[in-house]
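Standup notes
- DV: blocked on the single-chain target, sequence here:
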Amino acid sequence: MNPVELQEILPFLIPVAIAEIVLLVVTLRHILTHTTYKRGNRVLWLVIAIVGMQFWGPIAYFLLGKEDA
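- DV (later): unblocked, structure below
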């Protein structure tokens, strides 16, 4: 990748990377502080959240695993 191309897409990549990290941290915190889930268990959701780190794992957890309080 040409340095000029990288400079053109960097303003888009930085906010996306920050959002991804924040979403992962919030997801991991929620998984580790709660004991009940709609589906699966803590280990399953930790693996899904970490392996599917590029938004898919955390989004899957909040849609499918998070118990409604």
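- Follow-up: Residues 36-69 form one domain.
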